Amino acid sequence: MKSVKLYEMKKVEIVVTGEDLDFVLDLLDRAGVTGYTIIHNLSGKGSHGFHEGHLLFNEEDTLVMVISVMPENLVEAVLEGITPFLNKHSGVVFVSSVMVSRVGKFGDLQTSDKKEQ
Fold first, then answer.
1. What is the pLDDT of residue 23?
2. Which residues pair with 54 in a beta bridge?
3. Rounded-to-integer distance, Cα 70 and Cα 64, Å
4. Prediction pTM value
5. Where exactly are the structural domains of the chain?
6. Which InterPro entries does the entry link to (predicted)?
7. What pLDDT score was predicted for residue 46?
8. How far apart are CA 25 and CA 31, in angstroms?
9. pLDDT attached to residue 57
10. Can you tell me the distance from the alpha carbon of 57 to that of 64, in angstroms, rounded to the nearest whole number?
């Protein structure tokens, strides 16, 4: 059996209010991020108390999470853009290391492993 080649990437998860979603998506696009997943109507508890998902007719007051996997070289641009925003708005960012098998789906890796794609 042939082993699967895995590549290290970064997963960035951004949680903001629905009214701030367009800012986050624009930031990711400007940073060169090639894709993302959006999860609407999050519920949870944080420093601002409990947030309830599924508010009728009010997507702007709910929480959303944008999840993206990207090469490490793009993370800095995303963090530089989101940090001043989060200093004035509610939200949080998580960055973690992940391994992916189809590295070409996540943009330009810019490493020597790129030749193996």
1. 97
2. none
3. 19
4. 0.81
5. 5-101
6. N-reg_PII, N-reg_PII-like_a/b, N-reg_PII/ATP_PRibTrfase_C
7. 74
8. 10
9. 55
10. 15
CA contacts within 13 A on the Cβ side of 42 = 16
Q: What is the pLDDT of residue 53?
A: 60
Counting Cβ atoms within 10 Å, is residue 34 exposed (0-12), middle (13-18) or buried (19+)? Answer: middle
Q: What is the mean pLDDT of each run of 10 residues along the chain (117 residues)?
A: 89 95 97 95 76 58 91 96 95 96 75 40
Q: What are phi and psi of 69, to 5 degrees?
A: -110, 135
Taking domain 5-101, whether its CATH number is 3.40.50.10300 is answered by no
SS3 annotation, 23-36: HHHHHHHHHCCCCC
Q: CA 3 → CA 6, 101, distances in Å? A: 9, 11
Q: Would you state the torsion angle of the CA atoms of residues 20, 26, 28, 34, taken in this order, to the nearest 10 degrees?
A: 130
Task: Outline where the chain has alpha helix (H).
Answer: 21-31, 72-86
pLDDT of residue 2: 80
